[in-house]
Amino acid sequence: MTKIKVQDTEVTVTRINGEDYICLTDMIRAKDGDFFVTDWLRNRNTLEFIGIWEKVYNPSFNYGEFATIKSQAGLNRFKISVKEFVERTNAISLQAKAGRYGGTYAHKDIAFEFAMWISPEFKIYIVKEFQRLKEEELKQLGWSAKRELSKINYRIHTDAIKRNIIPEEVTPQQASIIYANEADVLNVAMFGMTAKQWREANADKKGNIRDYATINELICLSNMENLNAVFIDQGLPQSERLIKLNQIAIQQMKVLEDNQSRNLLQ
Asked: What does the domain layout of the chain look like in residue ranges?
C-alpha cells in the first residue's frame, strides 16, 4: 500500500490480485462540493464504461444483473452502492474495503475515468503521479535484483577465501575476522572505506554500506567479487588485489555512468 500526492490530495494505491487499485474515497476529496462515489456510479456513462471493462477482463461478470442495473440509470430514484454493485454483478473493477485502510478502490483504468469526473486537471496530475510511482518501483526492483546478485557472487568470493586463505586449524571466530577483512578489500576498493568506517560515519542508518549502494555500484561490486575470487585463486597478495580492484572499480563506474548519461540524453 502506497500513498501518492495529487495536487493537495493524498491518494492510496494498493495491489489487489496482482493489479493496481486506487482509492476513490481519497480522490473524491479533491472534487468541489459535497459528492459521494455513489453519485458517480449512478451515472449511465460510468456504468457503460465499467460494463465494457468488465466484458474485456472479467469472464465471471453477471451481464444479466448488470443490464438490470444499467436500465435504471438516469432515473431520479436510482442509487446503488459499490458493495451492492459488486455483489450483484460479480464485478472486479471496484472493491469496497472495510477496516483501517477501508474505502472504495477501483482498478487503475476505472480510477482514471473517475479522476476525469472530478476534473480534467486532476486526471492529468494523478496519471502523472501514478507513472512516477511505477518508475520508482521499477528502479527499486532493479536495485533489489542487483543486490541479490551481489549476495550470490559474495558466496563465490567467500568460497575462494575458504579454499585459499583460511587455514584448517583456525577457529570460527578467527575465520570470521578473515572473511570480514577480505570483504573490506572490496569495500575500500569500491567505496573508499571499510564497513566499520561507514558505520561510524552513518550511526543513524540501519543496514550496512552495501544497502545504500546505487545500482551501478552494485553491478560493479558484483563484478569485483568474481574477480577477487579469481585473484585469490591465483595467489595474489591482498595489497596487490586491492590496487587492481580499485582500478577496475574506477574504470567500470566510469563506463556505467557514461552509458547512463548517454541514455538520458537520447
From this structure: 2-118, 137-265
